[in-house]
Amino acid sequence: MKKMMLICLALVFSAGQLLVARGTDKTIENLKAAFKGESTASAKYAAFAAQAKKEGLSAIGTMFEATSKAEQIHAANHQTVLGKMGQKTDPVKPEFAVKTTKENLQDAISGETYEMTTMYPGFIATAKDEDVAAASKSFRWAMDTEKKHQLMYQNALNGLNAQKNTFPKVYWVCPKCGNTYDVAKPEASCAFCSTKSQTFIRFGK
């Protein structure tokens, strides 16, 4: 009788584990998709930075260098959450085209708009439904940063179209969440994750 009870308990435990695994399947899939997307964005923006500097647009090049770093941080955060869930990420082979800086800015605006209005809101909703708080946090940090990036890219494009060379020269990136600032001196701590600004990564002079 005791042996039978132990077997039943083992079966119940195994079934529970299976339900937990199945219950987070969509979030795992979303984390992997987000990791691939952010890794690709990081490589793409690094290439866009080089193109901008090639065109003599050094300030826009600096902006892309900063956002490239931010996307790298987002990808790393997603990967960390996956690791804690017992999952591994596949190698990413970024695929993108580099055109003129104006075209690159429009491409970046389109990408960030999709992420902040469609992709990440959906991912966050699913993570909440599946009760994966760490994924929800990682997604939200990325989404809130993409909103700022989209505005930076739009302002840069507007400036180019108006032939105004009044772009920010200095950018700061939070090493924990990727939050990006385009000011000469950032606030005392990150608005998203409370990391002290002394640790922020600076881009530009």
Overview of this protein structure:
With 205 residues, the chain is mainly alpha-helical. It has one domain (30-203): Ferritin, CATH 1.20.1260.10. 67% of the residues lie in helices and 4% in strands. It has 5 helices and 3 strands, in the order H-H-H-H-H-E-E-E. The protein has helices spanning 2-23, 25-54, 58-84, 101-129, 133-161; strands at residues 171-173, 180-181, 201-203. A 3-stranded antiparallel β-sheet has the order 2-1-3. A hairpin with a 6-residue loop joins strand 1 and strand 2 (180-181). Helix 2 (25-54) runs antiparallel to helix 3, helix 2 packs antiparallel against helix 4 (101-129) and helix 3 packs antiparallel against helix 5. The termini are far apart. 38% of the residues are buried.
